[in-house]
Design goal:
Helix content is about 35%, strand content about 15%. By secondary structure, it is an alpha/beta fold. The mean pLDDT is about 95. α8 packs across α10 and α8 crosses α14.
Length: about 575
């Protein structure tokens, strides 16, 4: 243990602890901008500088380790002056567009400027000008607002192992962009949006599609239906000031009705349907010698990652569409037929915690209804903005129920939002289908948590089913490399693109950190336990869907509407 003094308070911490971490233990908050715990600890912005007795210059606290007997001062007039100068220099080359910026009121740079009482910028001169990159359907880059913190580089490289962003040029010409300043659409970006979650300003953001939805809602010819993803019910409240992990299911339904949607449906319904199709596909592969291990296909960022980096393993992916993309064709076939509505007039909106869903809905193979199956995807953040624009006070709304039939769901569908949820939901159904017996305990707790890679063997009748669960693409890469090397003997693997699963998706409320992810996960399982039905095969609306329309899992109609194929894409460097 190392003993030191910070602002006249003594503390003992483990060797290797940084000054920033030690100060935090004392409740002393040192301002940071580039720092991202365990991901981006590079001391680039210099806002976290402190005075260390005996040191010749100010010390960046986020990278400086403590030393025995060290005396630190964090808030002297000289330190405050230095930090203010750093902020002024950053702001001198920053577009003053706060009122029109998507991060207005939730911007770390804006918050720091207010905290340090910056009323004017003393430095006037040239400003960097870079074009906005709006080449992808999901992510927009505005380098003019970039503060060169490199958080996006670190999360893309260290967490997701995609590495499409890099620092280029030097000095005043520095820019964060894909190599050779290429557009995101032209590189192997999987559009997961984790970069937008960690960006402290509005330099990286989701494409805002709210105007499309407002236009559809105002069109009397359109029958506008909406589906809400499992994770949204434990996220959307945060966009309106509620505590992280607040469960707003019924209030969100009420709010969507007040926005003007004709029907409010639940993606949990098609999550249950996914389990019926995917569970039977797994059993079929095991029984007929099909390609194993089978890997889940619910996460579009993971799918695009596989297409770029592991095209040789695409046969391992389940052919099932994601719940979002199962919902779309059913809304424009089954539902439209039951309601006597021309499918051309059905406008299908998705509310998702995910930016990659925006890319997914526009994939050319997603038109099995004869139309684009899902017309537009909004993130949790975008829905929060729509509620604000409509002056809807979400906490004050009554609890309302989803519409039938595509709004009836189970707890198994709900837990899709958390890492391990798809696996647990599948096991609840596969066990009872195989054994014909009711599970004594439907809670597969080995599947839960945010550990990077989880492995287990689950006894299903006479069959020991070996499973693996990963979240975050860096962790997925570890499992995929084992498959590629012939070292994996799993039957079933769940892969979620984003850390923590969908509750930490790229369209989640900002901030999203480990503590907040865990609160959302806890709320997800609370919601599961509240449900009357907790197993997908018990969903009465899914049973009716098969009786009236699909006939059976993996049947002809199911394959036509609910299954898909994947596209080997290769790497941008190889294509060049």
């Amino acid at each position: 243990m190392i003993t030191l003094t910070i602002d006249n308070q003594k503390i003992a911490v483990e060797e290797g602890t940084t000054i920033l971490q030690a100060a935090k233990k004392l409740g002393i908050n040192i301002p940071t901008l580039c720092y991202l715990e365990k991901i981006n600890e590079i001391g680039a912005c210099r806002l976290c500088v402190v005075e260390v007795q005996g040191a010749k210059a100010f010390v960046p606290s986020c990278v400086a380790p403590v030393a025995e007997g060290m005396v630190v001062r964090t808030n002297t007039p000289a330190i405050v002056k230095a930090r203010k100068l750093v902020l002024e220099l950053i702001l001198s080359d920053h577009p003053m567009e706060c009122l029109t910026c998507v991060r207005n009121g939730n911007c770390e740079l804006q918050t720091l400027a207010e905290q340090f009482g910056i009323k004017e910028i003393r430095f006037d001169g040239a400003k960097t000008e870079y074009p906005i990159d709006d080449s992808t359907p999901a992510i927009i880059r505005d380098p003019r607002k970039c503060v060169l913190c490199r958080r996006c580089i670190s999360v893309c490289k260290e967490v997701q192992t995609v590495s499409v962003l890099t620092a280029q040029e030097r000095g005043f010409d520095s820019v964060i962009a894909p190599a050779f300043n290429a557009k995101l659409a032209d590189v192997e970006c999987v559009q997961c949006g984790q970069c937008s979650l960690v960006c402290p300003t509005g330099a990286i953001q989701e494409r805002d599609d709210t105007d499309k939805v407002w236009a559809a809602l105002a069109d009397p010819k359109k029958h506008v239906v909406v589906q809400t993803a499992p994770a949204t019910r434990v996220q959307v409240g945060e966009t309106l000031g509620m505590e992280p992990g607040s469960i707003v299911t019924g209030k969100m339904v009420a709010g969507l009705r007040r926005l003007g949607f004709d029907k409010v449906f639940d993606t949990d319904f098609t999550a249950d349907l996914t389990i019926m199709e995917e569970g039977n596909e797994l059993l079929q592969r095991i029984q007929t010698g099909g390609t194993l291990p089978m890997i889940t296909s619910c996460s579009p960022g993971w799918i695009k990652f596989a297409e770029h980096f592991y095209p040789d393993l695409l046969a391992h992916l389940s052919t099932c569409k994601s719940p979002q993309q199962m919902f779309g064709p059913l809304a424009k076939t089954y539902y439209a037929e039951k309601e006597g509505i021309d499918p051309a007039d059905v406008y299908c909106v998705s509310i998702m915690p995910c930016t990659a869903k925006k890319f997914e809905c526009g994939r050319p193979e997603m038109d099995d209804s004869g139309y684009q199956d899902v017309d537009v995807v909004l993130t949790s953040r975008e829905l929060g903005r729509m509620f604000k624009q409509a002056n809807i006070n979400l906490p004050g709304l009554p609890e309302e129920e989803y519409d039938a039939p595509l709004g009836i769901s189970t707890g198994a569908g709900e837990i899709f939002g958390a890492s391990g949820g798809v696996m647990e939901a599948a096991l609840r159904t596969v066990y009872e289908v195989v054994t014909g017996k009711e599970l004594p305990d439907i809670n597969f707790k080995d599947c839960r948590g945010i550990t990077g890679v989880k492995e287990a063997t689950v006894q299903v009748g006479d069959l020991p089913v070996k499973i693996a669960i990963t979240n975050g693409l860096g962790n997925a890469r570890k499992v995929l490399d084992k498959i590629r090397a012939g070292e994996a003997d799993y039957h079933f693997i769940e892969i979620m693109c984003c850390p923590g699963g969908c509750i930490g998706g790229g369209g989640s409320p900002i901030p999203t950190n480990t503590e907040i992810r865990l609160k959302r996960i806890d709320a997800t399982y609370i919601e599961d336990e509240r449900m009357v039905l907790r197993k997908s095969h018990d969903n009465p609306a899914v049973k009716v869907l098969y009786e009236e329309f699909l006939e059976k899992p993996l049947g002809h109609k199911s394959h036509e509407l609910l299954h898909t194929h994947y596209t080997p894409r290769g790497l941008w460097q190889e294509e060049e």
